[in-house]
Amino acid sequence: MDKHFLFPDNFLWGGAVSACQVEGAYNQGGKGLSTADVLPHGIMGDPTQTIEEDRFYPYHQSIDFYHRYKEDIALFKEMGFTTFRTSIAWSRIFPNGDDSEPNEEGLQFYDNLFDELIKNNIEPVVTITHFETPLHLAHQYGGWADRRLIDFYVHFAKTIFTRYKSKVKYWMTFNEINIILHVPFTGGALTVKRDDDQYEQTLYTAMHHQFVASARVVKLGHEIMGNSAQVGCMIAFGPAYPETCHPLDMIQMQQHMRLTTTFSDVQVRGIYPTHYLNELAQKGISLPIEQDDLILMRENPVDFIGFSYYSSHTVSHKGGGSQQSNFFKNTIKNPFLSPINEKAKEWSWPVDPVGLRYSLHYLQDRYQKPLFIVENGLGAKDEISPDGKIHDDYRIDYLREHLKQVAQAIHEGVNLIGYTSWGPIDLVSATTGQMSKRYGYIYVDRDDQGQGSQQRIPKESFYWYKQVITTKGAHLYS
């Protein structure tokens, strides 16, 4: 029989999106092109670099949140949201990224958006940049490999901190910052080719520049908004398990975990782990560390750790395996995990609710910082039933089991700020560019070719999540 653990009264409940995956209006309101705008097949596909006529780009229209945010926020309020995570499209504020003056129409849009959230008692949580760098910065500078992007990013952050300091308390610097090593164009606006001799050097150069930028923005945020503002990081996280208790499997697990924790170590502790510097040196890679970079990073750690969790990974020193999870390809089938239901098999993610509880304890023990689950959810091909409803019990099953583990972790002492599931309304999938890979509590009538009425229809999970929030989690056990 399940033990019942309730969530704290001040726990933040909500959902998370990114600007490029929901807003649309890619060329309206003075917005410039971003890296997301030239991706016809999501971040796992190749960018076209320019807009090609007669080609469909899913992010151009998305779900038209730009024009329909008020009705969507009304639905979030109906569910009982107390928070909503979104991002600010950099190219909506600075169309080229290196502009000296911001686009007022873009700034006003986010003023209106945050005002609408606050009017509905929903706390905005803002990611400064989420997988969309102004395209001009990729073409003109080669993306984050150029140190000048640090100043452009800080100028952007200063503008939005100053504008929204009375409206936004929680900020995150880069979405899933560790993804830059897996999808360089999306994570770092990098145009270098994989067969280039300088490919790895370019990646790690860009990585360092983002770390420096993050530290500068944490410092800047406290200067502009005071200590009441919370500026955090955001990493893609999933624990690794050894396939067996073979010592070399343990080493493989440790190496896998280091791929992620290096990114949080730098932003939380302000230091590069020695093992990481050694590994880079062995590859002949030198980080472009300038005077005061390390002092800046050490003196300006993030205030909290935001992270996404979708699944865990299982590794072996023998390699092999075919079960993959998002961007991490060296994971193998875990015989102790089984899909909650058939729908959970569609994108081959291992479903591991207990892994989320393990992740919370792992991060708490390592850093002693407040944590924030800012992405977690199930993508599935939802269908409208003959009765006109969407019966997504498979999503309810997935979220129920994960939230039970979250509640238990809090009971066991984890300091968790809140939970924003991905995404509360159907949106364009980042990995594939599809609409058919649906996550939301709210169905959006739009298909993979961009056809549909954009009508919003609450799913069965909409009413379920509302009950979970209302009962502080008691409904998870009913």
General description of the model:
38% of the residues lie in helices and 12% in strands. It is α/β, with parallel strands linked by helices and 478 residues long. The chain has one domain (12-477): TIM Barrel (Alpha-Beta Barrel), CATH 3.20.20.80. An eight-stranded parallel beta barrel has the order 1-2-3-4-5-7-9-10, surrounded by four helices. A two-stranded parallel ribbon has the order 6-8. Helix 3 (65-79) runs parallel beside helix 5 and helix 7 runs parallel beside helix 9. The longest helix is centred in the middle third of the chain and has 27 residues, at 199-225. It is globular, with a radius of gyration of 21 Å. Mean pLDDT is 93; it is low at 321-326. InterPro entries: GH, Glyco_hydro_1, Glyco_hydro_1_AS. This is Family 1 glycosylhydrolase. It comes from Entomospira nematocerorum. Keywords: Glycosidase, Hydrolase. Belongs to the glycosyl hydrolase 1 family.
Supply the CATH architecture. Answer: Alpha-Beta Barrel
CATH topology: TIM Barrel
Strands of the largest sheet, in order across it? 1-2-3-4-5-7-9-10
Ranges where pLDDT stays below 50 over 5 or more residues in a row are 321-326
Could you say which overall geometry the principal axes of the C-alpha atoms support? Answer: globular
Q: Helix/strand-derived class?
A: alpha/beta
Radius of gyration, rounded?
21 Å
String of helices and strands: EHHHEHHEHHEHHEEHHHEEHEHEEEH
CATH superfamily: Glycosidases
Strand content: 5-15%
What is the share of helical residues? 25-40%
Mean pLDDT: 93
Number of strands: 12
**Count of DSSP helices?**
15
Number of domains: 1
Give the C-level CATH assignment: Alpha Beta
Distance between the termini: 12 Å
> Major beta sheet, specifics?
8 strands, parallel, barrel
InterPro entries: GH, Glyco_hydro_1, Glyco_hydro_1_AS
Active site: 375
Family: Belongs to the glycosyl hydrolase 1 family.
Keywords: Glycosidase, Hydrolase
